[in-house]
Structures are given as structure tokens and as C-alpha cells.
Structures
1.
Amino acid sequence: VAGENFDQSPLRRTFKSKVLAHYPQNIEWNPFDQDAVNMLCMPKGLSFRTQADNRDPQLHSFIITREDGSRTYGFVLTFYEEVTSKQICTAMQTLYQMHNAEQYSSVCASSSCSMDSLASSIDEGDATSLAKLQRYNSYDISRDTLYVSKCICLITPLPFMQACKKFLVQLYKAVTSQQPPPLPLESYIHNILYEVPLPPPGRSLKFYGVYEPIICQRPGPNELPLSDYPLREVFELLGLENLVQVFTCVLLEMQILLYSQ
């Protein structure tokens, strides 16, 4: 388990994650920092869900800034896939049994009763709350389907957010689709890693994803730097008043700290 969150139910806890594979193994000008990428891809750690939880894929980005000031940009699509290991499913049920036993003990202690007279001593309100606890805060291996979070990530020298997002979404659809894509998945990964070049400054580049073509554009030398992040989301997240205040602080060269989940 990552962190000390044992008070939470097992499905609300986070667990230690790790990088399963990365390609290519290493690049001379951009060595792969496994610990940094792992932490930034899953900042809260590995998480589990059941069929009753929301499992919509989510995209986020990160920046790795090195000592020399150079930057590397990462774009991550997090999704949930079904757990096929019977051992992991059994372990999750065991965690729930232990968690529910602790909940019983805490309710019993608050009611000043002994375990022998648990049924007769817990008042109606406590019994109702325990029933709800078992119904909504449980995992039954024979009834529930367990899912675990997984990430696919693209690391790039420039922040081509929209192009990376479209490629990752298409790759995810190909992985989860019952109908296989036109070519093996390895072909698309090899293509974007080794065959799609960076567009020259001031030029656009069109390349093929899994299902649809993808276009990315690089600003020229006399243009503003590449900013592929949608401004609409900034307004939606911060609101107009907060954004004006942040912009004012930028103009006044004040120090700004944005804190987010």
C-alpha cells in the first residue's frame, strides 16, 4: 500500500505502482528516469475499482525539468482493465474482511459491548449503519468484477498535447476494441517512436494514428512558443476572476503557487 491510508476501505486505498515496459530502452539525449515517470504517471499510486465505480479514461500531462533547464513533456492516459489474477481478487476480498472486522470492533467499542453479545447489544442505528457499510463498502469475489488502473504514456521533447492525446485515445480504443485494428499494435508504436519526425519550425506535420490521421503544428522562429493546451479549460477550472488575478500577479512578477489534486 502506498502511504498510510489503512483507515480507508481497500477500494479507496492506493497501492505502489511500477513501470511495466518502456520503449526505446534509452535515448542518449533523453535518459529514461523510471522513478520520476512512475511517480508523475500515477501520482496517487495504483488504484482498484469495481463495476459499480466510474472507470472513464482520464488524460493528464506533466513536465520533467532537468538541471540544465531542458524540459521533457509527458502525456498520460489512465484507464482501468479487468483483474484476471485470482490471487489478487482473493487478496482484495481478504482485505475487505479485515477492514469490516475492524469496523465491527470500532462500532462495538463505541456501544460498550462485548463481542459475545454483539448482536443483542448494538442498537438499531448502529446495525443499520453496519448493514449499509457492508452493502456499499464491500467486495464480493463471486459477485463483483475487479478493475485496476493502468497508464500509457508518451514522452516528447515538445508539448504537442492535442496530437499525443489523439494518439493515446486511438491506441486505447485499439487495445479495448473487440475488433482488432488494421495492423498489429506494435506497428503503430514503432511508427510514432521511430518514423514520425519532429516538424521543422513553422511547419505542420500529418501522420497516421491507429484509426485517423493526426496533425501537429510547430511555431516558427518569430512566433510565440508552442502552447497546445486549451485555454477554455483554464477558464473552466479557475474561473474568470481567479484567472484575471493570476494574470495580474504575472504582470507584477509576483510568486505564484497553484495547488491542485
2.
Amino acid sequence: ASGAYLRLINRWKLEECHPSGCLIDLCLQMGIIMVLKQTWNNFMELGYPLIQNWWTRRRLRREHGQKAKDGFPQWERDYNLQPMNVYGLFDEYLEMILQFGFTTIFVAAFPLAPLLALLNNIIEIRLDAYKFVTQWRRPLPSQAKDIGIWYGILEGIGILSVITNAFVIAVTSDFIPRLVYAYKYGPCAGQGRAGQRCMMGYVNASLSVFRVADFEKKSEPTTNGSEMFGDAVKFCRYRDYREPPVSADPYSYTLQFWHVLAARLAFIIVFEHLVFAIKTLIAYLIPDLPKDLRDRMRREKYLIQEMMYEAELERLQKEKNERKRRKERNGHHEEWP
């Protein structure tokens, strides 16, 4: 219906975005996540073992005296530190994955996120080093070929972020409707060029007309505006591409709306293909392994094969000598029955 709001169970009106768009809300949330939440996480990561170790030292002083800890051997001092959580490394990876996701998926709404992520990671490297060396027991080492499933998760987030940012730029930015107007509807329509003069009348073309009398009963304005403008306000303008109320199909989408929508979808396809092409090119130009490391790995493989070949040759030589000696012994016994 014309002038109808989105309502829950046809009763409560849903809170909608400000006319300037929803990105300001997302920007504020990203600022809170990237500044306050990361600062609090770093504080808790270091503060929790610090408090636990302080409590342990306090208990030891109460049980063994003030200077008892100085007489402990090093292994016992290390044992009194906090054990590393079973999922300690998992939590560290998860923190980086969440940070990477927020930073890349919503970077169009909060362009300062990568810088804040870099500063946080520089600080966290030093805090983690201090925590591993002074607050935690030495963890048991284990071999790992790579970071495992986390690499696939990072790849998936990277692909999702490109698509998401393409949609955010296409839907929220104003340059696509401006281009459509300049080349199709403005003074320069059909001329194959666009300049500053070609944008004359764009604001008027981007606003539709709404008749105040068409408001639904629950949303009627409390005043008709006569005390402010002198006369009652009968029409108002809003950002959209819809037919006027006097047309045969009032408030339906105009042809310009579909042109703008098609241009947005075309931009999304071109943008994500271009970004993925550049990403593939960079991945091809920068190998996963440096050339000198790859050569060293090949030489190591060659040396191992050579050692295995020499060991096999030595084993065969020993077997041959053993058979020869056995044969000589058997022949000697035949000569002396």
C-alpha cells in the first residue's frame, strides 16, 4: 500500500535506517569492535593469568614464608605458573579469524579498520610473548605442516568479503545512479559523454513525489504544516524512482529504477571479477615458497635419495661378500672330508 511502513504482526513499526543510510550504524559498531572490544580482549588475555599467578604467589608465601619462593628450583617455579589452556592456540587463531572477517567484510563501512587491526596485532604480539615467557608454563611442542583448516576459512572469508563489499559499494554509493542519469536521462543523454553540465537536474530526478493524503491511518502526521509554511503541505519528496500519485499505476517503479538496478548488478559482476583476477595474478607472481627455499628442499631430497642409494648399495655389497665367504667355507669342507 502507498505510504505503508514495515510492521511486525501488522502492529509494531520496525525501526528503519536513517535517510542517510544504514552504514553509519555499521560504522559505529565496527568502531566499538575494533577499538573497545579488542582492547578489552588484550586486557583480559594478560590480566587473567597475571591475577592467577599473583594469587598463587600469595598462597605460597602464606604456606612457606616470605622468602620460600626464592629457594625453589627453576622447574618448581615454572610449575607454579598457569598451565596453557587446551584450546589456547585455538582461541588465538579464532581471535585472528574474527578480526580478519570484521576487517575485510565491513571495510567499506569502516575504512579505519585495517589500521586499527594492524596496531592491535603489533601490541598483541608483544603481550602474547610476555604471556608465554613469564605467565604460562612452557607448552608442549607439537609438529604442524601448516595452519590446517584455518587457511580454508581465511580463503572463504576473503571470497565473501569481495562479494559483500561489491554489494555495499553498489547499493549504498551514489555514483552508479549519477552515471545512469548522466548517460541516459540527463541533458547529455545519448551523446556518449558526461561532464559537469550533464548532471543538471539530477537531484530533482532522484526524488519522487508523495501525496500526504495517502499516508496510512497509523502514520498520519500530527500537523499539516500550515503553521510552518503558511499553507497545508499536500505533497512531499523522497529518494526513490517511483511513479507520481496521479499516474495510472501510482507509486510503482519507474523505468529509471530498473536501469539503475541493472547498472548496480553489472558493477557487482565486473568488480568481483576484476578483484579475483588481480588476486589470482598476484598469487601467481608471488610463489608460496621462495626460490632459494625450494632449491634447498630439492637438494635435501636429492641428498636423502643419495644416502638411501648408498645404504642400499652397501647392504648389497655386504650380502655379496657374505655369500662369497659362505661359498668359500663350503668349498674348503669338501676338500677335507
3.
Amino acid sequence: METTLKPLRDGESVLDLNPRSTVSGGVEDVYGEDRATEDQLVTPWTFSVASGYSLLRDPQYNKGLAFTEKERDAHYLCGLLPPTVSTQQLQEKKLMKNIREYQVPLQKYMAMMDLQERNERLFYKLLIDNVEELLPVVYTPTVGEACQKYGSIFRRPQGLYISLKEKGKILEVLKNWPERSIQVIVVTDGERILGLGDLGCQGMGIPVGKLALYTALGGVRPSACLPITIDVGTNNEKLLNDEFYIGLRQKRATGKEYYDLLHEFMCAVKQNYGEKVLVQFEDFANHNAFELLAKYGTTHLVFNDDIQ
């Protein structure tokens, strides 16, 4: 990687950075944006923790049958749940039993994704306690098949989708994400998903799965993680002709059109989340991966585990 990056930077590599650009492993706060998220304006409406029926459909706070009788009284849940109070441990035991009954790995993947969408705490409890068994389900190799069939199994959007249609307003799109204190972004353009090639917009399964591991194994708060797919089209004819494909139906943008979109994205990320947000480039084709790492390695906190 080093020999490739040096020519791109006229001899300077990520290992030759000016000390002013590296403070405690980060980058210099050139634009005074470290406080970008602290005084950020909020939307005109007020958001508070849901109660009652809405609470049961909020994956971040829903505990299902684990709500105690006191909690059910306090949060207007009486009558909305069966009378039994089930511990998280018992819920975990039941769900692992159900997951193990599936014979097809993709069915196990879909069961885990459904759980993540309705009970986030229980999802991570399962993943942490059964990591050797479930890691191949939520990530490789099963996530590869999930990405190939993402359009067919798509139920609820996970992460943020930024396409060529959003050019010129990417900052506005980022502000649509409900969480403000983002620490880690995993972004892909879907061109080189695992060993499967160009899967376009359906590569979203990779950032979602990788960030789930960062929470389960690295302790990063789920609310601080943001999976993003940059959709610039796909050269996969099979997907372009698939009626269930969820991305742009056009050939991949290249050259100036591609890099202008990525530059707007990188600038918007820093403006919205500050200098310290970590951006991981994931499953980009090598011809773009090296270029992006060289271009933004001295201005943003970035890395690419495929080539570094």
C-alpha cells in the first residue's frame, strides 16, 4: 500500500504526516469543528423516549417481555403485553433455540436482522454470548448471500443511502439520520463486496454487519454507529435486470462525477459530525480505494481494512 500511496501524494504518505495533523491519533481541528455536534440545532419538533405502543416498536428501548410490572405501569404498557415477565436470559434461550432450528444460514441471518430491528439490546446480548456461533451468521460468510439477495429480503431500511440523486444536498441527507453523536461510519460503494464483485446498493449488508461487530466485540454504542451506502450505479447486469433491485438502475458513475460525489460526502461528514468521526472505507474497488485513502488520509480520520 505504501508504495502505491506515495506517488499519489507526490511522495508523502500517511506515515509522513505533519505532526500538526495528528493529535492523539486524530487530525488537526482545522475548521474548529470538534464541537460541531454539541451546539447543533435540532429539528422543530421535540423527540422524547416513547411510551406505550410506540415504545414496543422502538428497537433502542424495547425490552419485550422483560419489562417489569413496575415498568409496564410507568410506561403505559399494561395490556399491551402478555402478563408474564420474562428475563432477558430466558428470552435469549428461546431465541437461540429458534435460530438453531433453521437449517438455512440465510434464514438465521434474517431472524437476527428482525431481532435487531425490534429489540436492539437482546440482539447484542445474543451476539455477545454466542459470538462463535452467530458471527458467521451476521457477517461472513452468510452476509455475502444476504447482499446478493438484499432486494428480495429487504424489509426495513438499515443505515443511510446516499445516491447520485442526492448530489448537492448530502449534508441535508446526513441530517435526516436521527442520531447526532456519530463516532464511527462504515461506508461502501458496493463495487467489490467480499469475493462477490459489484453488488451496487445491495452492499449495505456489509456496513450493517461490520458495525454490529464493532458494538458486540468493541463496545461502541449502537447509536454512535452509522452504516452508509454510496450508490453510484452498478455494472452488474443481473441486478440491473432484477425487478427487486433496490438501487439506481444505471451503469456506475466514474471519473469526475464519482469523485465529486465522494468529496461532497466527505466534506458533509466532517461538517455534520466534526473532525473526530472515524470513516472506514469498506469494500471499494482497489482503483478507488487507494485514491480515496491517499486523498483524505491527511484531512479526515479514515482507514480501509481491505488495503491497509
